[in-house]
Amino acid sequence: MRPSILDPLFAPVTTLEGVGPKVATQFQTLLVGAGETVRVRDLLFHLPTGVIDRRKRAEIATAPEGGIVTLTVRIDRHQAPGRAAKSAPYKVFAQDATGEIALTYFRGQSGWLEKLLPIGEMMIVSGRVEWFNGRPSMVHPDFVASVDEAESLSLVEPVYPMTAGLSPKILRKAIAQAVERVPAVSEWIDPSIVAKHGFPDFGAALKRLHDPADERYLAPDGAAFSRLSYDEFLASQLALALSRQRMKKARGRPLTGSGALAARLRAALPFVLTDAQQGVIAEILADMADADRMLRLLQGDVGAGKTVVALMAMATAAEAGAQSALLAPTEILARQHFDSLSKLCEAAGLNITLLTGRDTGKARAAKLEAIASGEAQIVVGTHALFQESVDYRDRGLVVVDEQHRFGVHQRLSLTGKGRAADLLVMTATPIPRTLVLAAFGDMDVSRLEGKPAGRKPITTVAVPMERLDEIVDRAGRAMAAGDRLYWVCPLVEESEKSDLMAAEERFRQLKGLFGDMVGLVHGRMSGEEKDAAMAAFKAGRTKLVVATTVIEVGVDVPDASIIVIEHAERFGLSQLHQLRGRVGRGEKASFCVLLYRAPLGETAAARIAVMRETEDGFRIAEEDLKLRGEGDLLGTQQSGMPFFRIASMEHHAHLMEIARDDARLILATDGELKSERGEALRTLLYLFGKDEAVRLLRSG
Ligand code: ADP
Ligand code: MG
């Protein structure tokens, strides 16, 4: 259970003064994304990006047009609008040694204003100055205090990232209240690390950032910011270490095969395994043969040939008498894996079953029976495989394909349920080292370098939309010559206002020109419709398939040699790379056409330039990281929330390794988090939403 001292921070934001349902919704948009409860804690972790410093004083005569200034003035007179001119503003005139300024209030209440700005009083006012006919005015000053009052007020005001419609004042007030609620907690960071980095304690760090005495306190490499980033890394590393500890503790078992099935598979393959593939297969089999449980990440660029590596591992499990589950992120992919593996499995005498949410009734019951009896040696499916009560006779190996799509939370629960099975995670997005650490902790990593021999480079060109007709023309000629093409559009049926050409419209147009050679597949189709469209394309009954990004990950049609990506400027770099990876898998020279709408923004132009320059997934991932930030790269962009809320890889990556080592040390000495510091660390885990990890402690 979450320690009760954290209750005030986990209360909904509506428990704060000045926060009603409307503001709460704005906070939700800003902080957590739709569907999630926004809590006081979320406000705390929303850090300012700058300050307005009202300590610097300006003079009326030299106040710049449009600038935000702070003035020390004497209030001279009030001028309420006359009866005849009700819509005219209420003006309060004030002066300093250099001149006079009008403080202007629309629909100002005289009673309220007379109290706020008493005649004869010395006041500090701050806001935007506008000059009109040689006269300065300040409309609705955003800060007003008497000179005496101002001494006790904080004159350095934090500036926060905002969302449309939200008032900065309301946000500031809410955050100030949140800071007040921070309880005294015992230190969870190792004292030597605290001392070495000069970290303030948790509450003090928050206060220093939300109520900065100076802009310098907000520097990302400052002590307060670093402290909170470290907290965040430590929570994440500790959670990962806990799940690893738990999984390792679960009795692993050696899975050793005779090699008979694997040999038959090799013989059935239409190609020879590359040295790189042989190498990673050896690593995986060694892990499986070990009594410890396997926790291995297989990284390999799109088209590197990961699937067959997984198949060899699954065959070995079968030789050892255990079952394997292969988990795909989408139904299309699950079906594709099933289709392509079936032939090989049949040749080798391996029993493989596909289980998706679409199986119902008797057919489903029969499959569940085959899984429970152990007759099904390999089970392919989507994550429904885990959510539902699917009983295996003996599941020894779990392979997860394109894992980065599942998100970090699911990953924990997935492994939590994985019991004693060996785990192999395959990812196509080449994640840089620091991010592997962030997302997977110290999982063992195999890298499948290079691609199967004989692959030809993909020629990538960028073409403005104005030349669409030309591209359509060429597509027609390519189809006539027997080529197969993907045509990717970003969205289906966007709002009417959008100028995006929806996939359906493009489909109608191309079908009008080329008839039945054109197919369509998009995310709103039913599973059966999608399968049918992909099957037709794979079999060559259609030569061009108009698609949305449902084809982004993993789809494998080696005969397709051209991909046209419409509105390429709207895709991220990794996404473009994944999409391009759909071609260049066969004998033919391949092309990628990036259709863009001019003029290109700076980032979009940079992305397209990188795409034209290189096919190297690792380089593309590094560039992507620079251009977009780490959250997107890990596929957490669906929720719109960054992977880390506080820490940034740009400034704090060096703290990650320290946090990882610290987390390991903690678990080595206090594996159950029972010591005094252990208790404090539990609080840390809850603070950063790692409840799942704490649960592992109890059930472990
Ligand atoms: P990914 O790593 O992106 O999942 P796949 O496993 O889908 O890649 O493999 C891409 C394509 O390369 C498939 O058509 C597969 O049959 C083929 N392939 C895999 N290994 C080899 C190899 N050693 N030689 C030739 N082709 C291969
Ligand atoms: Mg794949």
UniProtKB/TrEMBL annotation:
Q: Which GO biological process entries does UniProt record here?
A: DNA recombination; DNA repair
Q: What is its EC number?
A: 5.6.2.4
Q: What Pfam families does this protein map onto?
A: DEAD, Helicase_C, RecG_dom3_C, RecG_wedge
Boundaries of every Helicase C-terminal domain copy: 467-626
Q: Which reaction does it catalyse?
A: Couples ATP hydrolysis with the unwinding of duplex DNA by translocating in the 3'-5' direction; ATP + H2O = ADP + phosphate + H(+)
| UniProt entry tagged with the keyword Isomerase | yes
SMART domains with a match to the protein in the record: DEXDc, HELICc
The UniProt entry, under InterPro entries, shows: ATP-dep_DNA_helicase_RecG (IPR004609), DEAD/DEAH_box_helicase_dom (IPR011545), Helicase_ATP-bd (IPR014001), Helicase_C-like (IPR001650), NA-bd_OB-fold (IPR012340), P-loop_NTPase (IPR027417), RecG/Mfd (IPR047112), RecG_dom3_C (IPR045562)
Origin superkingdom: Bacteria
Q: Does the keyword DNA-binding apply?
A: yes
Please give the coiled-coil regions recorded for this protein: none
Q: Which GO terms describe its molecular function?
A: 3'-5' DNA helicase activity; ATP binding; DNA binding; hydrolase activity
Domain Helicase ATP-binding stretches: 287-448
Which controlled-vocabulary keywords does the entry list? Answer: ATP-binding, DNA damage, DNA recombination, DNA repair, DNA-binding, Helicase, Hydrolase, Isomerase, Nucleotide-binding
- What is stated as this protein's family in its record? Belongs to the helicase family. RecG subfamily.
Q: Spell out the PANTHER family in the cross-references.
A: ATP-DEPENDENT DNA HELICASE HOMOLOG RECG, CHLOROPLASTIC
**NCBIfam families for the chain:** PRK10917.1-2 (NF008164), PRK10917.1-3 (NF008165), PRK10917.2-2 (NF008168), recG (TIGR00643)
Function, please? Plays a critical role in recombination and DNA repair. Helps process Holliday junction intermediates to mature products by catalyzing branch migration. Has replication fork regression activity, unwinds stalled or blocked replication forks to make a HJ that can be resolved. Has a DNA unwinding activity characteristic of a DNA helicase with 3'-5' polarity.
Its name, as the record gives it, is ATP-dependent DNA helicase RecG
What taxonomic lineage is listed for the species of origin?
Answer: Bacteria, Pseudomonadati, Pseudomonadota, Alphaproteobacteria, Hyphomicrobiales
Protein's gene:
recG
